[in-house]
Amino acid sequence: MTTAGEPERIWADALLALRLLARDPHGLGGIVVRAGPGPVRDAWIERLRDALGPERAFCRMPPGIGDEGLLGGLDLAATLAAGRPVTRTGLLAAADGGVIVVPMAERLEPGTAARLAAALDTGRAGPEGAPARFGLVLLDEGRDDEAAPVALADRLAFRIDLDSVPPRAALTEGRAGEEPEVEGPDPVAMLCTLATAFGIASPRAPILALRVARALATDNAAVTAARLVLAPRAERLPEPAPPPEAPPENEREETPPGQGEEREPAPPEDVVLEAVRAAIPPRLLDLLLAGGLRRSEARAGRGGRPEAVSRTGRPVGHRPGDPRRGRLDLLATLRAAAPWQRLRQGEGRLQVRRDDLRIRKLRRRVETTTVFCVDASGSAALERLAEAKGAVEALLAEAYVRRDRVALVAFRGTGADLVLPPTRSLTRAKRGLAGLPGGGGTPLASGLDAALTVALGVRRGGGNAVVVVLTDGRANVARDGAGGRARAGDEALQAARALRQAGLPALVVDTGARGGGAKAMAEAMAARYLALPRLDSGAIGAAVKAIR
Amino acid sequence: MPPFPFSAIVGQDEMRQALLIAAVDPAVGGVLVFGDRGTGKSTAIRALAALLPPMNAVAGCPYNCDPASPADLCPHCAAGAPRKAQKKPVPVVDLPLGATEDRVVGTLDLERALGAGVKAFEPGLLARANRGFLYIDEVNLLEDHLVDLLLDVAASGVNTVEREGLSLRHPARFVLVGSGNPEEGELRPQLLDRFGLACEVATPTDIATRIAVVRARDAYERDPDAFCAAHAKEDAALRKRIEAARKRLPTVTVPDAALEQAARLCLALGTDGLRGELTLMRTARALAALDGAGTVTDDHLRRIAPAALRHRLRRNPLDESGSTVRVERALAEVFA
What we know:
- The structure holds two protein chains of two kinds.
- Chain A is of the alpha/beta class.
- Chain A is 44% helix and 16% strand.
- Chain A has 23 helices and 17 strands.
- Chain B is of the alpha/beta class.
- Chain B folds into two domains: 6-54 and 89-201, P-loop containing nucleotide triphosphate hydrolases (Rossmann fold), CATH 3.40.50; 251-334, Magnesium chelatase subunit I, C-Terminal domain (Helicase, Ruva Protein, domain 3).
- Helices cover 47% and strands 15% of the residues of chain B.
- Chain B has 14 helices and eleven strands.
- Chain B has helices at residues 13-24, 41-51, 75-78, 101-105, 110-115, 125-129, 144-156, 189-194, 207-222, 224-248, 256-269, 275-291, 298-309, 323-334; strands spanning 31-35, 55-58, 85-88, 92-94, 106-108, 121-123, 133-137, 158-163, 166-171, 175-180, 197-201.
- In chain B, helix 12 crosses helix 13 (298-309).
- Chains A and B meet through helix 7, helix 9, helix 10, helix 15 and strand 14 of A and helix 4, helix 5 and helix 9 of B.
């Protein structure tokens, strides 16, 4: 996919983005730099620092920064030492007019991301609303699905991907790609049309592109802006407009002159469309060509695992710590300070030092959610469905005592339904189950996908998830709702492997008379397998208890 | 930079209508806005707050108390200091994800505890939001215990603090505005049901509207003051309309026929409990007041029903259509 000049072109664009950002950090929001650590990224950052100059702020955000560090507030150590409140300026306000570099942006906590986004929107930070007009550089070292928080990336004008730039190229100035000349169409209309053509939903994209175009102030500014801002955000490829849909390499080299001659007044939009299409980063282009829906990225960006230290729950003792990151345990703090009072020689007033501060240790009971994925198709006859309902209800009745939850996904016809979102309410479950219809084809892949989504959602909320699949394994409807046993079977196995990859404990209950599909599927998802041609809810209940 | 003027927001009629209704009658119980990113959700809420007439508040009171209210409701005013009135803008408080309970509820004032050895209360976000708006972006990702707490306070209008040896109550009446993207997580049904209105916003799909959005934004950014001045007249008209609607609200009558229609609509949709009918009636009344009408008519019910009811429907696996379609179908049946 890469042509000979590709790395130079990417590097040239990266440098152009950097110069633009240095001119107006706040207005353009910033840059997402997708690259592993290394000389190329360091060289880029060094150049950004040079472009900003010595008098403008260039801060690096420490990972795991707290509110007082970010927004400003009480400096605990200094306050305790001085015996009077000492405040300090937050990082956001300190960076006013400059740039904040955020390393490991793919692991940014949602709370921190939300504060950064709010400061970008309002230009102010902290309780007093100190001016904080900064630009952000998100260093995204994510692999595969990991990415910087979408809410934040959406507000930043540029995204560059330096992984394909060799260190040698980083020493040069790069070489800008050639751009088609476009004669005076309205830039606003053009950018909006382009954004729509590339499936970019957020209106922020054309707005940012327009700002970039104004900052560039060249003849061809709108085209450059579209290439820099819109191309890396492409969600889909536009309908192929020109007939020569050959490999894009050739296209880039020969179309600009060729096209202009062939069709007399080539619509300027099409020319630009091609220019932008050529600027889509290769990795993204592969994804788009494969029709990869990038929805999952939105989720993966969101912190992933729940935080290790629980902020809620039942107190179980105390530990030293900063009371602004947890809850102060006043009694324990005083107890820790008490033995030292003579040594500290306070004048009647209690002397508390930072080391004395104790915060509460909390423990949250991790609840388990059993996600039932039930085959409600015609092949899995209706009575079995009734048995499955019985099993769910039996488990729920028990779960009520253990404070566990149950969810139910049913698949039939052309797709899957989340009949019962994770709940521990027996009434709700009964009502949801009562209306569950049966009959139709077996879209097993859709069912497993839906179960995976629910289970990951549970996990994100800090709970454990267990998946129980009740099916005869005879998939005959593919994800898109089309019939066909072979493709449906393949997709089902694929979905099953995704479950294994997520590391979810699973149980497959084979409700078919003859074995076959279900067994292979259980192997694909590394699940326990239970052949139960005659279902009984008691047996299922026992098996579920065994896997969790 | 002055906030983006409310009257300059392009499209998103349903969201604007819902926010205006909440401004006329804060008792409708909050607005939920679900939809894509960058569709002007937070712009609209900030614009609304700037549009509203400034309120009378006790000078120096961290809880924005109304000077006309009884003094013993809040710890600051109960202390007996003279209550001087002061005009304040209507507060819009952001509740960020990952906010600690301490920040929301308020906690022991560490500064004064350490510095002066005084046990004092440091008011939290709930105190700042009193009589204004509490805006939660990505409300569907908020931790459960915070959601529970917010619901409790929003329903009672009082924040009760019992922690770190502090024990006090202060008024916390606010309009809860939540926004989020349903693809990233659902809201618990208990919480959904507590919001008065729910609207869906979507990115405009036709290019003409998108161009209008970008143009408006661009004009605003290039010269905020001129842009606001150009819309000042419309904003002022809207402000007058809200003020007039607030005055008219107590006198707007709801005829029995309208109540019956509301009940039939809720029955047809199978909504749980009576909250559906109550909200429908309340919001229709606020809408009538905004329109300058003296009584609620079928037209008002019809216009507000999707927003008032769509989040109260039971999920029905037999019916694959979205909840908005179901409400519209029921509307067509009932108002046939």
